[in-house]
Design goal:
single chain; alpha/beta; Four Helix Bundle (Hemerythrin (Met), subunit A); Rossmann fold; seven-stranded mixed β-sheet; four-stranded mixed β-sheet; 17% strand; binds 5-S-methyl-1-O-phosphono-5-thio-D-ribulose
Length: 352
């Protein structure tokens, strides 16, 4: 079986290429990004989306910004680079990988000794490192997640929400990385993909990725998940995350929390798959995670068709927080652990 690889963010020659995720699945289009403000726009408008992919894109955005700064004075360069960082940080508030990647790029600039041109080159190299690391991280998450899945039945029916696939990362995916590893090892019967209102990342992107690789996928509307669980059609739920607090509370696409509650009610294990860079150890619990609110047009309009009468009011939070108590395990590149063990894992990996 062919296994076409999907890389949503790539460095090509002297610019970044993004797969335009607003056009999939109907059109496969690539956007060329040459400037920092174009990258900020691409993140804000969700041409590139998904926490780790946003981080990789922002890292390249920092380099593109650095390239636009024309001074040989180191201090002036660093001051102007901070302005680029601010612009990128202002794009989307929930996915912590954005802030993590921008900070890592700034740290590289501050710690690199040498002329400004050398700093710029080291920024490109760091962005490429972040890109490559995320790909390797996702492959590790996939394999650890496979080990954490229930051992029976042999072939699992997994439910996922949103798109935490190759498109949402440097490649391979987090939640969908687990699904890919399960499929590769003959442990997947079928993936159920919530359509994921309002932007339909499940129906459009997760389904597209699966079809590319021949992974059997059934799209359901978000409201059907409880019914499927009640009918015994789901063996495990695997989702991604945009930001995980130190206590294991995990923010992910709106609708994830209700999925976790229903999974608990049906005794179905609920897994969160995410790189350690998605954990925000500065936040003690999920209440502190900033939740992005998006334009209500995403709710009241599909394509050119308006759904609701004028005069209706809307609330459009893009993410919700699943309490750690509902999560069977968090799968990172270092293994699958109970949410309560997160802090220990950071300590082991940084200090050990
Ligand atoms: O608004 P989006 O499409 O950027 O939201 C994406 C998600 O919620 C993903 O599940 C999350 O970023 C994990 S991606 C590996």
């Amino acid at each position: 079986m062919s296994s076409p690889s999907v890389y949503p963010v790539t460095w090509y020659d002297d610019h970044v290429r993004l797969i335009d995720q607003t056009r999939l699945p109907n059109e496969y289009a690539v956007v060329e990004i040459k400037r920092c403000d174009d990258m900020a726009h691409a993140i804000k408008t969700m041409i590139v989306r998904g926490a780790p992919a946003i981080g990789v894109a922002a890292a390249y955005g920092m380099y593109l910004g650095a390239r636009e700064i024309h001074t040989a004075d180191r201090e002036q360069f660093l001051t102007k680079l901070e302005v680029m960082a601010k612009q990128l940080r202002a794009t989307r508030p929930t996915a912590v990988n954005l802030f993590w990647a921008v900070s890592r790029m700034l740290k590289t600039a501050h710690q690199t000794i040498g002329p400004v041109d050398y700093l710029k080159q080291s920024l490109l190299e760091m962005a490429q490192t972040i890109n490559l690391e995320d790909l390797q991280t996702c492959q590790a998450i996939g394999d650890h997640g496979l080990q954490a899945l229930p051992t029976t039945p042999t072939q699992l029916r997994i439910l996922t929400h949103c798109n935490a696939g190759a498109l949402a990362t440097a490649g391979y995916g987090t939640a969908l990385g687990v699904v890919r590893s399960a499929w590769r090892e003959g442990r997947l019967e079928r993936l159920y993909a919530d359509e994921t209102r309002p932007r339909l990342q499940g129906a459009k992107l997760t389904a597209w990725e699966c079809v590319q690789e021949g992974i059997p996928v059934t799209v359901i509307t978000d409201g059907m998940a409880a019914h499927c669980m009640q009918r015994g059609m789901i063996d495990a739920v695997v989702v991604g995350a945009d930001r995980i607090a130190a206590n294991g509370d995990a923010a992910n696409k709106i609708g994830t929390y209700s999925l976790a509650l229903v999974a608990k009610a049906h005794n179905i294990p609920f897994f969160v798959a995410a790189p350690l860079s998605t954990v925000d150890f500065d936040l003690t619990d999920g209440n502190q995670i900033p939740i992005e609110e998006r334009d209500p047009v995403e709710i009241y309009q599909i394509g050119d068709t308006r759904l609701c009468p004028p005069g209706t009011e809307f609330y459009n939070p893009a993410f919700d927080v699943t309490p750690a108590a509902l999560i069977a395990a968090i799968v990172t590149e270092h293994g699958a652990i109970a949410p309560q063990e997160l802090k220990a894992q950071l300590h082991t990996k940084q200090v050990g």
